[in-house]
Amino acid sequence: MTSSFLWWLRVAVIVAMAVHSSPVSTAAERAPLRSKVFHSPPFTLSPGSVEGKYYGDIGFPRGHIALKDFRAELVDEAGNPVPLHDAYIHHWLVVRYYQRKRSGAAGPPREPPESLITGNASPSKGPPEYILAGNAGTCEKILRQTFGLGSETRRTVTWVPDPYGIEVGNPAEVPAGYEEKWMMNVHAIDTRGVVDRLGCIECRCEFYNVTVDESGRPLGKDYPGGVLCCHDKARCRTGEGSGGAPRKLFMRYEVKWLDWAAGIVPTKLYVLDVTDDGKRGPVASTDEFNDCQVEYHVAPCGREASGACIDSKRAFLVLPSGGNIVYAVAHQHRGGVGAALYGQDGRTLCSSTPIYGRGEKAGDEAGYVVGMTTCYPSPGSVKVTSGERVTLISNYNATEPHSGVMGFFYILVADPPESTVQLTGRLLHSNYFWVLLGGITVASAVVVLYRRRREIGQRYQSLAL
Ligand SMILES: *[C@@H]1O[C@H](CO)[C@@H](O)[C@H](O)[C@H]1NC(C)=O
Ligand SMILES: *[C@@H]1O[C@H](CO)[C@@H](O)[C@H](O)[C@H]1NC(C)=O
């Protein structure tokens, strides 16, 4: 009786654990991976011109889903990839927002304003027209994107590994009276026929003939270049000759996703910025609380420098909440030689380096950053804790000066999956477990009694013989 009971108890525990934990291990595999290709609205670039618009309500999968991948690239009207030396992708951003639902008579919705992202929106009375969904930090005021890359877009892996996903469209999170939408910012520079390609892609103000920012404020002498000089409609200096005809381009992007299911583990996205140093910079100058300056400048190390000529910029940042890092990647511009993120105790959380192209074709353009290496730590091996002070270091080759460079780190952090001890603890607290255990105990008792009676019956039979 006792050994049989123990056997049944073991079976009961194993069955109950399997039943209880099966969604964690199999749901993500059961749901089919969906994918769809979308195009941004078209825009026209001619030699030297800059495109920097924000497009509201772009094509995007709807509903409660787990985003798994987002691949973007610039293409022409025939769908051919456009190489970076023709149209340089300074950056693109995909930003989630909520738009107030309108009654039928209200007319078509307005495009969400750029000020929504830059944080310069003036407060209005009544409920806001738009609310940014943002990410988990730590540049909440200016880096609000869910996805965003630059010239490296073609060769940077953005896959979110199983069983994780970026959860969006959760009806419980969309504010009442609003609907979830997405906008895209594309910043591209046509460098056909320009006098200085590097000067144009680094947005050096001298090549754009720009001395004031978009709203007319004078730029300081210490601002050699950056996004304030290569804004939408700015022009980079072109040489003699035409450089080529205007052409219509699109951002083509492929989204992969799963319908939301139990067992998909949601992740938090942090977008860290190496310029987040507590000082205010020109880009974020209108926002009192924002320490993220987005871009910075690399001064040349000079001829007298011996040894490595590297500009190393660092920031100490506090992560509001912790968990397992499941994916990480840095964003750097041309001249970048790598960025790394370290934990408070100095352990490396991720190191990500630029991949430089060597050829002509789109995806391999010589001298351009065509990809960034990524980190996929084996499950549970790289953790950060709530409130941990991490160090972000961004290194640039300082042989030449660089303006308007960036040092971001994207990290996806998931709550650690429940351990077996926690799972068993939760099992012992669930009614389901006790009902199952009770049922199995009764069943085993019945079997034991039945066997006894059969044995007794057989004994009588043998006696009868
Ligand atoms: C830039 O400005 C200078 C002086 O204002 C002018 O001579 C020059 O033509 C301008 N260049 C371009 C490309 O607009
Ligand atoms: C830095 O750039 C110079 C050319 O500007 C190049 O010769 C050198 O190899 C580069 N160094 C590194 C570490 O990439």
UniProtKB/TrEMBL annotation:
Q: Keyword Zinc: yes or no?
A: no
Spell out the protein name for this chain: Uncharacterized protein
Transmembrane region(s): 432-450
Organism, per UniProt? Spirodela intermedia (Intermediate duckweed)
The UniProt annotation puts the region (Disordered) at: 104-123
Query: Keywords, A to Z?
Result: Membrane, Signal, Transmembrane, Transmembrane helix
User: Does the UniProt entry include the keyword Signal?
Assistant: yes
User: What Pfam families would the database entry show?
Assistant: SURNod19
Q: Which residues form the signal peptide?
A: 1-21
Q: InterPro entries under this entry?
A: Stress_up-reg_Nod19
